[in-house]
């Protein structure tokens, strides 16, 4: 069993295949292939997982601010990397996390 910590206002994880709602479960449990490159690890929370206080949801930092995670800051490269990351993580396709979520209330 793996324990992950999420913001208390994070939305509930959607069902597999449902539209992503920014719950953050998948990225907090393990990095995707893009996150492996950024986080330099294969397990645990992705370094690019970003909490959006205004929208009460998580986002992939590689989609929003790739320059924050890269050694260079070239606007043309940032746009390309953001698009590449979006395709790589299948953003907008649907939830693909089969993690089973339990809250502290369930314990």
TrEMBL record:
Domain 4Fe-4S ferredoxin-type: 12-42
Domain of life: Bacteria
Name of this chain's protein: 4Fe-4S ferredoxin-type domain-containing protein
Taxonomic source organism: Deefgea salmonis
């Amino acid at each position: 069993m793996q324990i992950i910590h999420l913001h208390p206002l994070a939305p509930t994880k959607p069902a597999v295949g449902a539209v992503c709602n920014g719950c953050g479960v998948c990225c907090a449990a393990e990095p995707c292939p893009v996150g492996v490159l950024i986080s330099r690890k294969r397990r645990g929370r992705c370094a690019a997982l970003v909490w959006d206080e205004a929208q009460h949801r998580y986002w992939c930092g590689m989609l929003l601010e790739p320059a924050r995670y890269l050694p260079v800051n070239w606007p043309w490269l940032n746009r390309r990397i953001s698009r590449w990351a979006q395709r790589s993580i299948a953003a907008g396709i649907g939830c693909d996390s089969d993690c089973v979520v339990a809250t502290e209330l369930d314990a």
